[in-house]
Amino acid sequence: FCTIVRGEGIFLFFAITAIYLIRNKITKESIYTIFPSIGLFFIILLPMVIFRIDAVGTDGIFIRTAASLVETSSIASDQNYSKIFQSFEIFFKYLGWIMIPNLIFFVPLGIIQYFKNRKKENNFVIIFPIIMVLPMLYAYSVPALDTRYLYFLFPILCLLSGLAIQHYISKTKTQNYILVGIFIVILFSSILFYEYKKDDWRMDIDNEKEYLKISQEILEFSEGINYHPTIGRYLNVDQLPNQWPILHDKISKKVELISPRQNSLNDFIVQNNESLTHIVVDNNSDLQKYLLEIYDKEYEFLELVYEYEMKEKERKFKVFKINYNLFNPK
Q: How many independent structural domains does the chain possess?
């Protein structure tokens, strides 16, 4: 079910399989046990895979995973170390975010306790996150800026936190009081954190209409535009058909969204010259560096055709039209 909901869930199956084989060793008995399980796993997935291919043109699991592996290998072969470093940077930054406000105090201590008392049967604590981190690193190399890719790690983070709590309260005689105190602190800190962030979420809701307006206006004059972390989501939704059901190959989109995965502006334009007509940027986003430079830097072949300044946020969007007659790819 996890794999059906999110394609990355297949790595959970890989992790469980690896843990089983390591704990039970690769013997005839373990192989005879694991192969029927693998077969059952794929039998359950098969109907949904076939349905998705018919409905949306891809299964969202194996095709997506294979494409990701090919792209990852190309990044490594091209020695594109900047994307690799970017992936790790975003990973550790978001990992810190999801541990706020409670786990961040316990996880480091739990890691220390785990390695102090490490046993062979507890190796899954290392194996599981190593395998599950792989799709996360790929997502952040795109970059897909979302903390939800890290939610698979919550069970391990909670386990490590439990090790820290167990170690330190076992030395006291008032264990029950300490546990109650920790529970109260976690409860109230979570409530306070929610209340603190609630205004930001409400503000985001207030800005939804503005984002929608920007995307609708971009749809009026653009045919192909770079994918923007914020506006791109609205451009996708705006182009969905109103009448359902409809097959995926019957859905026609006026504006094509193009992921800027190249290393330079020239490469991005050259490799997408048949579909890319406009570039959208803003002064507060996680776009590639060469796209952010467009915001302030003037290019002869880029014509500013649209501007919009947000009312609540100090954020301004600009859309540039590419003049291919003036563009020199050299």
A: 2
